[in-house]
Amino acid sequence: MTLPQAAQAPATTNDRAAVVLAAGHDDASRELITRPLGEATVVELAVANVRKIVADDRIVVVVAPGDTTVRGLLGDDLTYVEQQDLPGTGGAVLAARSTIEAFATPAREVLVAYADTPLLRSESLLGLLTRHTLKGADLSLLAAVVTEDLPTYGRIVREDGEITAILEEEDRPADAGTGGAPAEVNVGAYVASPGLLFAELEAMLAGGEHRLTELARRVIAKHKSISSYRIYDTDEVRGINTPEELQEAADILLKRLFMPKKNTDTKIVFGTGGWRAIIGEGYTLANVRRLCQAIANETVRKGIDGLGVVIGGDRRFLSRESAVAAAEVFAGNNIPVTLLPDDVPTPLVTFAAPYLGAAYGIIVTSSHNPPEWNGMKVFRQDGSLPLDDETDRYQDEANALSVDDVITLDLAVARKAGLVVDKVLTEPYVDAIEKIVDVDAVRGSDLRVIVDPMYGTSQLTLGTILNDMRVRSEFIHASHNPLFGGIAPAPDLQRLSTLISMIKQGDGRYDLGMATDGDSDRIGIVDETGEYISTNDLLLLLYWYLHEFRGEKGGVVRNLATTHLLDRLAAHFGEESREVKVGFKHVTAGMEEIGAVLGGESSGGLTVRGWILGKDGIFACALVVEMLARTGKKISELREMIYEITGRLYTLEAGVDSTPEMRVAVPRRLEADPLTHIGPYPVVSISHLDGTKIVLENDNWALLRFSGTEPVLRMFVEADSPEKATELLDWLKGFVTAGV
Question: Which secondary-structure segment (H or E) carries 163?
């Protein structure tokens, strides 16, 4: 049964056709559409949006006579016709008539688009096509709601919601601007049946009218039905007619690159700490399976599939289901799986990869991100994080896979076949820590500690270690709560208020407060008075303790957002210090290069030589307890002792939501106007190793860096007085928000 026209289902890519106008009106306009824009050219981007909704073999590109440049850019999959004798944009569309009418499957509708509108989104073109069919219209046009004056676009006039006129520039009074009020304009993309489209254009040309914009006016005059699809992002409206407009378009593409991805974007993107995304948007079980298939492919290609993989998950929503889904993918690819039951800390998986000799260790977690996030971290056979070139391969291959490319084996079948083996590795992990940390030295110290695992995964392992040390310990926020009490499980000053309050109210009851983040690879420390101890200070204490008390000689590695006091302490010891990019994989790589005894970052991650090649909050907590027991000193006493060696620097940090505009404007301003001073303080040097680090005199510095895991611009400063640190941070805040 044939449905009435207004009830027809939207056409598919196989019964649509498209005409893309790329002939231009002169040599300059033709040259402009072949210029680079982002990673492609203007015409390639414009046609790419059409290709998403119309099959390649049903797209006709109208080019100028003898033009081979556009063909060379777009390839041979499309059909090209030359605009010979027919003038204007109306004539350009008519030039495609015979080609479209010759299609084996007749076109129900024809989309007309321009090659100089690369900023139009494919979603807008799809909205236009879909609305045309659902409305049963004779002609549909793409409209934009704007508040700025765009005099070259026809102004749409409506009565009772229906389009009754389109006023071109010459039809409007000279002062007919929008005045800041919303106005609706005709963007210039159209959809119509081939019969109506070509008949009206032929009649237009016979009457001496060559402009495609006249088409809508003719349809209105004949009282035929006309509909529109409205777009509200005025950036889409911008065509490329001048070099200046090309530069504006480049800025817009950059802004789009940094916009938060919505649920229609299923791309997997690795940051500094693995892949993370919002649950239900980027983070789905389908994406988990695609990523695991890509890693499985890499495992087979490398010939290490026989080593198997080890998989675990933390306490977040979907973590257990994701671990099972991952196991089924690897089993489906004939790769043995060790599946860790229940929830486990990330450092345990980091440990498990080399312990089992597995090709990879995989943990489902998004670390300290808010509760609505989840993700995955991947560790190599030695327990280290893959470097950027490796994760780029994983994500690129995963994004190229469809769900139909994923090979799975049901978990029950895989278990029965022995491809998936459930194994508990808590005991080997704890035993390995206790071989490095001096458990016996702690016994008898009568230490009393309070621990906040922040509803994460450290209670079992850290609790076992503290019990073995005979430390009197008390845990708070230890239950399984995937909402993490409504906050991001990051062990920083703002989120450890309960721990701090309990120590202060304990009136000397506790010698130490410790915290770990959601997946237990970061540490937070509160001293016996209830003062939060920054990780910068903790790294100083541990480096001194390892080097001087345990006699473990060697340098130190820190990321560029971590205190320069570590450099001073290393110089005091006659050791090397090294600065690396943010991301713990860079810290461990630097440690291996210089044989460092300690590596860490101000955000709470650290490890020591001889332990795993990843950060470990559980191990760090155990080492801090050992330090207090063996030195017989409080945290506050140790810190003052170290300051006598290094002097004092004061660190502050802040973060602001990084808008797409900020992502474009801040680097451009830094490049256009190199800094010589921050306020009254002269700049000694500027590093672009990772973000922009501005080094001042006396180890003072300021850092601007866009986060690799969250849409945040992070600002860090270190100065020789609290007042100066505040002054530097205020200057950074003003700089990054100015004009944005």
Answer: strand 162-167
The DSSP string of 684-732 is: -EEE-SSSEEEE-STT-EEEEEE-SSSSEEEEEEEESSHHHHHHHHHHH
User: How many whole angstroms separate alpha carbon 238 and alpha carbon 249?
Assistant: 8
Nearest to 101 by CA among 195, 200, 190, 199: 195
Query: If you count them, how many residues does the chain have?
Result: 740
Helix crossing, 617-631 with 459-468: angle to 10°?
A: 20
- Domains 270-424 and 650-737 in one fold: no
Determine the 3-state secondary structure of 527 from DSSP.
coil
Strand locations in 51-108, DSSP E? 59-63, 79-82
Report residue 50: phi and psi, to 5°. -70, -40
> Who contacts 94 (Cβ-Cβ below 8 Å, separation ≥6)?
86, 198, 201, 202, 205
Strand residues in 501-567 grouped as ranges (E): 512-516, 523-526, 532-533, 556-559
CA distance linking residue 287 with residue 266, whole number of Å: 7
Buried b / exposed e along 471-493 (16+ C-beta atoms within 10 A): bebbbbbbeeebebeeebbbbbe
Measured CA to CA, the distance from residue 631 to residue 224 in angstroms comes to 90
Identify the H or E element spanning 139. Answer: strand 139-146
Token pair in block for residue 405: 């490319």
Write the class of the CATH domain 650-737: alpha beta
Decide: 161 and 124 in contact? Cβ < 8 Å: no
697, 681 in Cβ contact below 8 A?
A: yes
**Secondary structure of residue 197 in the 3-state scheme:** helix
SS3 610: coil
Token pair of 10, please? Answer: 């939207």
Other residues' Cβ atoms within 10 Å of the Cβ of residue 167: 16
Q: Tell me the pLDDT tens digit for each residue of 646-681.
A: 999 999 999 888 777 777 778 878 877 788 999 899
For the chain, what are the domain ranges? 15-257, 270-424, 430-646, 650-737
CATH code at 15-257 = 3.90.550.10
* Nearest-angstrom CA–CA distance, 675 and 688: 13
* Residues 6+ away with beta carbon under 8 Å from 143: 156, 184, 185, 186, 187, 228, 229, 230, 231
Name the β-bridge partners of 141.
190, 228
Residues 6+ apart with CB under 8 A from 689: 560, 579, 580, 581
Q: How does DSSP assign 289-324, residue by residue?
A: HHHHHHHHHHHHHHT-GGG-EEEEE-SSTTHHHHHH
> By C-alpha distance, which of 521, 488, 551, 509 is closest to 617?
521
CA-closest candidate to residue 320, choices 443, 445, 422: 422
CATH superfamily of 270-424: Alpha-D-Glucose-1,6-Bisphosphate, subunit A, domain 3 (3.40.120.10)
- The CA-based diameter of the chain, rounded to the nearest angstrom, is 103
Entry pTM: 0.77
Q: In what order do the strands lie in the sheet with 556-559?
A: 577-580, 556-559, 598-600, 606-608
* DSSP-H helix ranges across 437-512: 439-442, 459-468, 497-505
Average pLDDT for the chain: 90
Nearest partner of 321 among 411, 409, 394, judged by Cα: 411
Quick one: fold of 430-646?
Answer: Alpha-D-Glucose-1,6-Bisphosphate; Chain A, domain 3 (3.40.120)
| Cα 175 versus chain centre, distance | 45
The predicted-structure confidence for 240-295, as pLDDT tens digits, reads as follows 888 888 888 888 887 776 665 554 457 899 987 799 999 998 999 999 999 999 99
pLDDT at 261: 53
Separation between Cα atoms, residue 165 and residue 4, nearest integer Å = 27
Strand partners, 525: 514, 533
R_g of the chain, CA atoms, integer Å: 32
Half-sphere exposure of 649 (CA within 13 A, CB side): 26
